[in-house]
Structure formats: structure tokens, C-alpha cells
Amino acid sequence: MTPRVDFVLQSPNSDTQLLVEAKTTDAPSKEWAARLARNLLAHVETPSSLYFLLVLRNYLYLWKHIPRDDHSAPDFSAPTSEVLKEYLASVQTSLRDINGPSFELLVKTWLNEWVHGRATESTEKWVREAGLQQFDNAVLTDETQ
Asked: I need a surface site. Which of 3, 9, 62, 117 has the fewest CB within 10 A?
């Protein structure tokens, strides 16, 4: 059973999925983000081929596995403002001021452009650094609807 998250990316070359949750909150630490991720996915049986991306106002946290305990540190993190800087410039709103639905739409736009080969320079850099090239040209499912 796949957990209820905002978005799911399905790799075109494998059964690997990237689950994405967008929240308009800040994580005070990686440990706090790990607890949030674990709580979001606590009661769900998931295959090992799932990745999890938590997009928060201040950081993106990526697990290349499903975090099962509070000690499951993310495999990669990056400042949200750096990864989404081109998108933030176009909406002329700071991450501090953006509301929940607008933040989800911003994340959806970012993911959609990434999987359709229209990634910005900052997104391409993040994908390379995070090791997520297998999701280039992925199928994006919007679970928020």
C-alpha cells in the first residue's frame, strides 16, 4: 500500500518510485525532519524501491529508502531556496510568505518541468548531486486531487 503523499514519480526504467510530500513548515534539524518523515509513513508497508522526498520551506530532504525510525538521517539535503530559486523569482513571493496550496503548486510545477526535460539549472544540479537521474522523464502523479 502506497502512503498518501502529495506527488509520486515513477521511474520510466524501473519500478522505483519517488514519493514527494510538500509542507509549508521549517525543519529545525535533520533529526526533526527524520521524525516527521517517519510519522508520515509510520503505518504503511512499502517496498524497498521507494524513495522519499520531503520538501519544506527551508530544506529538501531525500531518503533513498523509507525512513523507519528517528535515526534514519536523509541521504541528501539542500536548501529549498537554492533548488527552487528560478521558480521563486517568477512568482515574486518568498518562501516565508507563500501559503500551503501555492507551495504545493510551486513544487508540482518544479517536478513537472523536471520530468518533462525542462529542468532549470538549479534543478539539474540538485538531481545530479542527489543521484536522482533515474527519475528524468518519470511519470508524475498528483495525489493532492
From this structure: 117
| pLDDT score recorded for residue 16 | 84
C-alpha cell, 127: 538531481
Residue 110: pLDDT band (50, 70, 90) is very high
pLDDT interval class at 9 (50, 70, 90): very high
Strand partners, 50: 17
Mapping DSSP onto H, E and C, the string for the chain reads CCCCCCEEEECCCCCCEEEEEECCCCCCCHHHHHHHHHHHCCCCCCCCCEEEEEECCCEEEEECCCCCCCCCCCCEEEEHHHHCHHHHHHHCCCCCCCCHHHHHHHHHHHHHHHHCCCCCHHHHHHHHHHCCHHHCCCEEEECCC
Q: Which residues share a beta bridge with 77?
A: 61
pLDDT per residue over 23-81, tens digit each?
Answer: 999 999 998 998 888 888 877 666 667 899 999 999 999 998 877 766 788 999 999 99
Cβ–Cβ under 8 Å, residues 28 and 46: no
